[in-house]
Amino acid sequence: MTIHQFELFADYFQLYLMDDSANDDTSEIWSDSALEAKLAVSSNTLAVGTFRNVDVNVEVEVLEKEPSIDLEGWDHASIGYIDLPTGRCAVFGCTDYLSDAKRIELPKGSYAALSLAKGLDSIETEWEEADDFYKVILWPSKVRELKILKRYENT
């Protein structure tokens, strides 16, 4: 298990995890179902939706096998997938330059991706300080699904 921590600019309310060799067109990955899940997938790219359009704290955890998933304490959770054929995963905000992105080294292959968000009730406006936190857990998997496990309802 490895854990990587980042502070990233979530411009346009999104962050990317992308294989180093990816040339995916991300301009049309945000379908209605992806917007609802706050998670969009393309061949070698995973786009994580955020609830603020500012710098946010993000943690990426890489596991060797599927974790036992406990959603207690998380406000929103979705599962998706990403292929990482080079084993080098760039992590960056959507308007950052790929060449400047931080990299995570991991075994080449296909991964499930659990996207989690918490602290969402602390958000009053998108540009003010808040305690929102985002986490993506990756583990080897050939499963190709995108689904919401827990939906945040800000009522």
- The secondary structure category is mainly beta
Order of helices and strands: EEHEEEEEEEEE
The number of helical segments is 1
Count the E strands.
Answer: 11
Q: Helicity, in percent?
A: under 10%
Measured between the Cα atoms of the first and last residue, the distance is 36 Å
- What characteristic shape results from the CA principal axes? globular
Q: Please, what is the average pLDDT?
A: 94
User: What's the CATH superfamily, by name?
Assistant: Competence, DNA-entry nuclease inhibitor, ComJ
CATH fold topology: Substrate Binding Domain Of DNAk, Chain A, domain 1
Instruction: Report the top-level CATH class.
Output: Mainly Beta
Strand order of the largest sheet: 1-5-10-9-6-11
Radius of gyration: 14 Å
Sheet having the most strands: 6 strands, mixed
Assess the beta-strand content as a share of residues: over 45%
Supply the CATH architecture. Sandwich
Uncertain stretches of 5 or more adjacent residues: none
* Overall number of structural domains: 1
InterPro entries: ComJ_sf
Structure summary:
By secondary structure, the chain is mainly beta. It has one domain: Substrate Binding Domain Of DNAk, Chain A, domain 1 (Sandwich), CATH 2.60.34.30.
